């Protein structure tokens, strides 16, 4: 009987807490997206990506996408939605800006000045099973990036069963728009490489392998 009374008391207390926090939460909480912090110094990825490119790419381009999305979503059903959900369910300007935030958040956090080499563990095995070898995978990934017309992204992605694929995403799209999980993405918008490589996109893509942080990418798998 004592246990029953205590349980009922707990239930009443929890319910009253829930309703008061719901009322409090409703007051002010409109989620704002923020510019991610880089996990390295702006010059740390040189000579593959210059300090100037990082500063423009992160500080100007990504910041603009963040500002745009924060201006676009108030009053829409995406006001408090997580980024992946916005990319999966939106279209138009909201999709473009949310997609670019997701793309760049994953992009900037997949590099390290100590990067390079090859993937390890399960991801390495899955790449070998899919493309025969890591070198062959890189060749196909580079070809997809070099062959993408205009602005966009090339991604290594996995489906719900862990099956890998290379996807070419136009403009601000991301594999989550097709129900896939993005693992590794190379940005082929000119803003990602023009200061350092001008029109030589294939050279830029080739150099990026030297800074890929396979531990970070492996965790996404
Ligand atoms: Fe970019």
From TrEMBL:
SUPFAM superfamilies: Fe,Mn superoxide dismutase (SOD), C-terminal domain (SSF54719), Fe,Mn superoxide dismutase (SOD), N-terminal domain (SSF46609). The keyword Metal-binding applies. InterPro entries: Mn/Fe_SOD, Mn/Fe_SOD_BS, Mn/Fe_SOD_C, Mn/Fe_SOD_N, Mn/Fe_SOD_N_sf, SOD_C_sf. Its EC number is 1.15.1.1. Belongs to the iron/manganese superoxide dismutase family. PANTHER family: SUPEROXIDE DISMUTASE (PTHR42769), SUPEROXIDE DISMUTASE [FE] 2, CHLOROPLASTIC (PTHR42769:SF3). This is Superoxide dismutase.
